[in-house]
Fold this protein.
Amino acid sequence: MSTPQNDLAQNDLAQNELPYRDLPYYEDVSPARGTTPPRAWYASSDAARLSLNGIWRFRLSPTATAEDDAFARREFDASRWAELPVPAHWVLHGHGAPAYTNTRYPFPVDPPHLPTENPTGDHRLVFDLPHGWEGGESLLRFDGVESCARVWLNGEELGTFKGSRLPHEFEVGRQLRPRGNVLAVRVHQWSSGTYLEDQDQWWLPGIFRDVTLLHRPEGAVRDFFVHASYDHTDGTGTLLVEADPGGRLTVPELGIDLATGEPATVRVEPWSAEVPRLYAAELATPGERVPLRIGFRTVAVEDGVLKVNGARVLFRGVNRHEFHPEHGRAVDAKTMRRDLLLMKQHNINAVRTSHYPPHPAFLDLCDELGMWVIDECDLETHGFAIVGWRGNPVDDARWTPALLDRASRMVERDKNHPSVVLWSLGNECGTGRGLGAMADLIRERDADRPLHYEGDPSCTDVDVHSRMYAGHAEVEQIGRRTESPWGDRELDERRRAMPFLLCEYAHAMGNGPGGLLEYQRLFETYERCQGGFVWEWIDHGIARRTVDGERWFAYGGDFGEELHDGNFVCDGLLFPDRTPSPGLIEYKKVIEPVRISGDGRAGTVRIANRFNFADLSGLSFLWYYEVQGVSVAHGELAVPPLGPGESTELKLPEPPAPERPGEALWTVRAVLADDTAWAGAGHEIAWAQLPAVPHVPAPPPACPAVLRKGEGNVLVLGRGAFDAATGALRYLDGFEVVAPRLDVWRAPTDNDEGAEWQPDERYGTIWRGLGLHRMQHRVVSVRDADGELVVRTRVAPASSDLALDTTFRWTADQRGRALRLDVSVVPEGDWWCPLPRLGVRLGVCGSLGLAEWYGGGPGEAYPDTRTASRIGRWTLPVDALQTPYVRPQENGARADVRWAELRREDGTGLRIEGDPAFWFTARRWTSEELDAAAHTTDLRPGPLVWINVDHGQHGIGSQSCGPGVLPQHRLAVAPASFSFAFSTVATRAGATWGDEDR
Ligand code: IPT
């Protein structure tokens, strides 16, 4: 933000930009010494290459200068050093420990200086050249070293470099010998580069990507640039490949055989993330043949809209950090592919490589499988925000060479990927001249991709307007191109004419994110709103084991860091072990590229193709007619191969004559017709349920039983036995229960807790402050009202006059086995905040370990995360109802439950029906225990299963970083009434009350 103080600070700074002098290389701001210019990366060629990955020797020292460089000499004896795999982070192999901070630098902000304690890892590898390795030039390539390296080969120093997630190469032909080569690499955890790499992630030093020796025959490819555009007006592609040295380019399938530097225009099929058409090609220079895969596509901003091949694209995106729970950012090829398959399988079509260029092979996979990519530079100086941006390197000319080096290493490395459609200057760097210089450099080199950077609201250097965590209302305003002015009229106008992206939204920390559906509607309504990127793909929990071998995931603070940001590092759609979280299942549903809607009663269904490029010929449509959650008829629906944006309305078949009464609905699913590269035939893409016959809850007792006094201090009503003094239910049909009572507490989610920078109320703190976690229940009266049992309780927190005046009215039918509970709640006092939940909690014996329910499932759902919940009959063990969020918190509710049963192994158990449908939760610990736990291993099953049947739940929102719960999803305090019927289940086959309903 531009304020007088800021401007002053920036001016002062400009005058202070005297050159830094006499700094050691790791503090010196210059990017590198001795490396060769950046160039395109390619996975293979016919030139020899030798992977130097493997087991190296390793020594850790506490400071940058504790050890001299004698280890680089060939004769040095490192046989007593530890062994360490490369690529790896040494802190994940028992040398030192990881540490997590979000924006804060873990050392004083004193650029470019670093703490004296600067863990330094000396790495050493002895290697032979393979048989037949020819002499001449070779390059030694490092794909990623954090954060600064000094390199020697056979005792001769090659140079130094910084830029952790960028490639660096040295010429080494002269130093190589056939046998016994000694490669020595000194890696400092902290360097001036660290000031540019303040991304929100673990601090993980090491050689974490591949090390490769590349033979460079005479006339080998130094660099090449593939320009492959597509003209959607005439269906032609134009190919031009620049190469140094020049050579020939062949694309057999297109009959192309050209000299480099010469263009060719031919009819082609275009590349898109939906239809990733690649053409196999070969670049041949006098000394090398490089296989290429070419995708034709044109990216352009036209009429304020970002278009590819002439069509508006909608990003259904995620922010992807590189992360593996055991290996940190040393992510292997299998894991990269796994990420992409999981994304494709969940309808995700775009990745922002937050906040650095990924392993280069990842982009090959994006080309192949189809993914829009925003490639982001390895640059973030977020920690300067804490000191009012004073000294921010992106606004200090002394750092500009380092910024430019980073920009050009990214662009040169990744320029040949059709999947990369936008360049991003970096993340959260504030503003400054350095960013402008980077933008100039990138545009100069590659005019064919628009630029992205979120941190400068003026949008001076970019082609798309981008925001993070903007609320729905603001996105709507932006959608209308009426967002508030920033300052400069001309720039404001320019910005309003730009396409808009949410480069981060929907913070997926813990339970959530909520509110996805409402964002998606905005993206579909406003042409300018071209989608967003959920923050983020995966939880960065580090795998640990208890002494008993049980696995758990560590977050900030678990390694004894004195400064840390706790579990803010676990905010992904995947759990650390890459199991999809409910958030991912919800996202998949919300962004489904086929919209199915209709009128189940009228028997009509509408299919809309929401792809931007693909038609629907690859999909099959299946229908099911379900009565009480059981499919009674099904078949295939003939859907024409609608083109992008097209829709049609179809008639569903005649439903079968009902064998028994009850709720009925149509489920229509769109599935892959054939196997694809990323999922098999039958994989579901989209679905909808269309109600045909509504659900009718069980009526109140027709022939009410009468309350009577039993033996001792007991009241008996139907099959229920109650404590006469408190009115608490003790037994149901001989079955012991911990009496149902009103419950409003949930273990606050990360989103309930909220973030300090969000203006919305932080309800976790507010609820706790009010004492909602320790409500007291004062029994006001226990009455026999015309044979019914009526119990009035005042439920209220200590030290407050707020209360919930609660009446439980118990009734039973003479003939039935069920007990009906009508609850009514009347708030007292000025309740100004929503409740976490409103319902009834009871406890039953832990042997009731199996849950079956008819209602929303199979996964959890909350008011603003319920799109993926589908009505059906579901069965799961109680243990599987819980979602293992890395930091335990409220989870596991099932929405719209008509009835639920908990059963023992022999089939006997308890049944609960709701009127209206309810939220159902069952777990082996209480909400209080859940609330107290810091890690999953803190939760120990108790002797009981605790059941919550809720009339209401507060929404989830995204406030752990973004906006809170939308008003329509808040659980406002208001008079409420709702009912449950409790009965026992005799055996699986001979069910009791509710039998007529099944
Ligand atoms: C935003 C960062 O860009 C991202 O790296 C991550 O830290 C995210 O927040 C939260 O997990 S910045 C935030 C202060 C809006």
About this structure: Residues 400-414 form the longest helix (15 residues). The chain has twelve helices and 59 strands. The pocket of IPT is lined by residues 102, 200, 355, 427-428, 468-469, 504, 535, 568, 571, 961 (CB under 6 Å).
